[in-house]
Design a protein that fits this description.
- By secondary structure, the protein is an all-alpha fold.
- About 70% of the residues lie in helices and about 0% in strands.
- The protein contains 13 helices and two strands, in the order H-E-E-H-H-H-H-H-H-H-H-H-H-H-H.
- The protein has a two-stranded antiparallel ribbon with strand order 1-2.
- Strand 1 and strand 2 form a beta hairpin.
- Helix 2 runs antiparallel to helix 9 and helix 6 packs antiparallel against helix 10.
- The longest helix is centred in the first third of the chain and has 26 residues.
């Protein structure tokens, strides 16, 4: 493998004009997948690894399409429009592949499973994967959403010791709640490790890291949250995804002082002459 060429393909210029590397996202995805597998859930590791691989393919192939002068679709609407015209983009492959993988993860979850909730859970997982990627427009922004969510989902429930291992599963992740907690921990560790390099603009998550982390948090929520909460979260994620087609998240964040303060915490000051343009 030509490592110098790969490193070059992973370099990007961010909103502030600084050079960052998407190797951070590839490493986060790999650590997340490995941690999930070591926790005992190979099926979840397969799902998350495939989500990360689709994201990495988008990270690597979209710039090549730009250099070749081919049209590059933007946003969910753009990718779906390209699919309707018979053109499969890397984003279109994600738009098809990530929901399919999310459905696989929801259907293969430890019992108890409720058939009517499996599609809703899949929407939540796919939506979280996409939402994390939509937030990855400024240093640390996606991680500031992922880390608190993963930390909350990693807290043991009061009844966890009494349940122990789920009968018939034979491993710690056989229990639904325990598997959700393991997923949250597997996401929390690489996300926390990536926060400082991301804030210092040495790297960025890209599609590989953001999609995988978002999917892991979504999967953890489907395992740990009660049904009403999951349905509420699904509605919220769908609403935010639809809103992103018309509204700039960066513009909204910059208009709200509290959100702006959190968003800019820990970030380097933008160089002179580089404006905080929405979605730059």
């Amino acid at each position: 493998m030509n490592w110098p060429a790969l490193r070059s393909e992973l370099r990007r210029t961010n909103y502030a004009g600084r050079t960052v590397t998407l190797a951070e996202g590839a490493a986060v995805s790999a650590l997340l997948t490995t941690g999930t597998a070591l926790a005992g859930s190979r099926r979840d590791a397969l799902v998350l690894g495939a989500v990360g691989a689709l994201g990495l393919a988008d990270d690597l192939l979209e710039p090549r399409q730009r250099r070749a002068g081919r049209p590059v679709a933007k946003g969910l609407r753009g990718h779906l429009g390209a699919l309707r015209s018979g053109r499969l983009t890397t984003g279109g492959a994600k738009a098809l592949g990530i929901p399919a993988l999310a459905l696989l993860g929801a259907a293969a979850a430890p019992r108890p499973r409720h058939g009517t909730m499996v599609p809703a859970d899949a929407i939540l997982v796919a939506g979280c994967a996409n939402l994390a990627n939509l937030l990855d427009l400024r240093p640390g922004r996606a991680l500031k959403a992922v880390i608190p969510a993963a930390a909350a989902l990693a807290v043991p429930s009061a009844s966890a010791p009494a349940r122990g291992r789920d009968a018939g599963q034979g491993h710690p992740c056989g229990d639904r709640d325990a598997s959700g907690r393991a997923l949250a921990i597997a996401a929390l560790v690489p996300a926390a490790a990536a926060l400082l390099p991301d804030l210092r603009e040495h790297g960025m998550l890209g599609d590989a890291g953001a999609n995988a982390l978002g999917a892991a948090v979504g999967l953890a929520a489907t395992r740990r949250a009660p049904r009403p909460v999951r349905l509420g979260l699904t509605g919220l994620v769908v609403a935010l995804t639809l809103a992103s087609e018309r509204v700039s998240f960066s513009a909204v964040i910059d208009r709200i002082p509290a959100l702006r303060a959190v968003d800019r915490w820990g970030r380097r000051q933008a160089p002179s002459g580089s404006a905080e343009d929405p979605d730059a």
